[in-house]
Amino acid sequence: MPGGTLAAVVAEIESMYEPGWAESWDAVGLVCGDPEAVVGKILFAVDPVAVVAAEALDWRADLIVVHHPLYLRGTTSVAATTAKGRLVHTLIGNGIALYTAHTNADVADPGVSDALARAVGLTGDLVPLSPAPGDPRRGLGRIGSLSAPMTLAAFAERAARGLPRTAWGVRVAGDPDRILHKVAVSGGAGDSLLGTARAAGVDAFLTADLRHHPAGEFVEEGGPALLDAAHWATEWPWLADAAARLASRLAARGITVETRVSATVTDAWTTTAQCEDTK
């Protein structure tokens, strides 16, 4: 049938990304929407923000599936006096549901880091960088191989081509001529996985939101080379994979939906400017 109930679509999403896999501090699941409403068009995006809501309105979407939670720390009000409150009013007022798959999508197999690994050119069987207890196929990050050895500089260029353009680009720490064979990636903030990447024996680790002191000390102590991309960019490749898998699984149940991946850049950083040379 054309479209299905929101409840049916949510059930399929949660069979792909079980809410129980999410971290205890996370806020995943249905944010707003009538479970009995019919969903025929689904927009996938990283962030639940006004420009994404506007895109959903323009496309006449029935549901937005996002990666980042709208209210990660909870709230006592959805009054339209704040940006988040206005977003909720816009969605409900136009019959658009909102669903979040966050850390449960991060650890899924396949999940956020699988899509990132493929986007930057890793091949072969991908394995979790930090496996989930009791399930070696799930977990944070992924480790993969390059089809042929290449320098850090060449891999950085490949990664930049494989990810969507942002003001941040891809920053690199390490010897540009270092030869890479095995690479680890983690979509989103991967600062907490630096030690895990070192222990895994990879040649480089690509992630986002790396801090100055931990990154500097990591490289000084002989750890893998580091590549730091924009947070939004490292998670965006997952959207197409999630959209395709959801549409296929729903089709197997006789439910036809149209999906769309938002290309709107919602990374917080919008431009850069070079400082003057200190010499």
Automatic annotation (TrEMBL):
A divalent metal cation binds at H67, H68, D106, H231, E235. It comes from Spongiactinospora rosea. Gene3D superfamilies: NIF3 (NGG1p interacting factor 3)-like. GO terms for cellular component: cytoplasm. One of its GO terms (molecular function) is metal ion binding. Belongs to the GTP cyclohydrolase I type 2/NIF3 family. Homohexamer. The keyword Transport does not apply. Keywords: Metal-binding. This is GTP cyclohydrolase 1 type 2 homolog. InterPro entries: DUF34/NIF3, DUF34/NIF3_sf.
